[in-house]
Amino acid sequence: MKKLILILIIGFVVNNSDAYSQTTPGKVSLPAKASVPGKVSFSGKMSVSGFSKDGAIKEKTPVELFKSFKESKYKIGFAFAGWGTYPPQQPVLFDMKTTVKKNGKVIGSSTRPGWPWLPGDMFVPVEAFDFIPMLQKDEGRKIKGSKMNTLTASYEIILEMNVSAGQNVSGSIEPVNFMIKF
Q1: What are residue 95's DSSP bridge partners?
Q2: Which of 26, 103, 129, 132 is the most exposed place for a label (fewest CB within 10 A)?
Q3: Is the domain defined by 43-181 classed in CATH 2.60.40?
Q4: Does position 127 have pLDDT exceeding 50, yes or no?
Q5: Any long-range contacts for 113-116 (C-beta under 8 Å, 24+ apart)?
Q6: 166 in Cβ contact with 26 (< 8 Å)
Q7: So what's the pLDDT on residue 32?
Q8: Cα–Cα distance, 99 to 108 (Å, whole number)
Q9: What integer is the mean pLDDT of 123-130?
Q10: What is the pLDDT of residues 21-59, one digit of tens each?
């Protein structure tokens, strides 16, 4: 009986070994039977929800804003899908770019390269973009030596997701702009 169970387990593992294999990160490859030359295309969209049109928020500090994102009061949504021969469950690497403007002047910009995303609809964590640290840094410049003060400026935040270089993928995501008035 023990031998029969052992044979069944070994047979199961051998037959399902493909389900446990990993792909090489950083490359999106076409399925072997696809014969389409060139790059694979996709389309996608980002959105930010929860903010009023004028950008006025109740939060008075970047920390409170971060907490509101974590509690899902504000959300960053992202959806993308492939066209034609796009492999359905292959990740695409995106560079997450953040630009923050204060009263029309750029106060910070950063890019976080190589974030993997699978096709579908999802929420993006606020940590994927750097606007909270940029707001916190601006708050620190304004109120040196003070522990808890509030921001009183108007900020424009621009979020972008660009396909990382070196992939056989083409497509673009429209940047999202939104205003925050502390």
Answers
A1: 162
A2: 103
A3: yes
A4: yes
A5: 113/164, 114/26, 114/164, 116/25, 116/91, 116/92
A6: yes
A7: 34
A8: 6
A9: 93
A10: 333 333 333 333 333 455 677 788 999 999 888 888 999
